[in-house]
Amino acid sequence: MKITVFGATGGTGLEVVRQAAAAGHEVTAVVRDPARLAPVPGVAVVRADVMDPASIAPSLVGADAVVSALGNRDIRHATTVCSGGVASIIEAMEGANVRRLAVVSASGLVTDGADDFLTRYVAKPILQRILAYNFADLRRMEEIVRESGLDWTIVRPSRLLDRPRGNYRVEIGRNLPRGYNTRRADVADYILRSLDDGAAVGEAVAVAI
């Protein structure tokens, strides 16, 4: 499969790139600054501005799927990194006739019956206040993805850990009970599996240990 990855210099995006390349996929990593991307054998690195559809369009030619692992570390200011970036990616995908899209969001956005009392009424409300700007951006990103008409999957990990891949759980359409942590390597593994999984199309999927 030919996969184009955005946000490849981040922890989760880099895991997607590494695992996809190791699995034999043809991978293109689109980055603003190639110097920030650790070398991965066999991966084509393209310098482009994700906010400019014309800039990223060439990287999508012939792609079978697109992965967005865009993120923002600044929690103090309003941002459109994820929503604006995904809007641009979708515009470029439509121009290149590419339909499969997977994006990384966060389970902290959503509170539902799968959450225990402390998570639902204490932990997540606090987290949603602390990350209010970033979560607003992610919510808007999810709205844009849902309205795109593409074959999309929204992947919602919980607190991300930099640990080797292991056993993990997934739940379509709701949170995972006691899904407090998620390894980045597991997120990447699920994303790559989901690209060929029709059951994941048009769904938000929680991933956690």
From TrEMBL:
Gene3D superfamilies: NAD(P)-binding Rossmann-like Domain (3.40.50.720). SUPFAM superfamilies: NAD(P)-binding Rossmann-fold domains (SSF51735). This is NAD(P)-binding oxidoreductase. Residues 7-197 form the NAD(P)-binding domain. Pfam families: NAD_binding_10 (PF13460). InterPro entries: NAD(P)-bd_dom, NAD(P)-bd_dom_sf, Polyketide_Oxido-like. PANTHER family: FLAVIN REDUCTASE (NADPH) (PTHR43355).
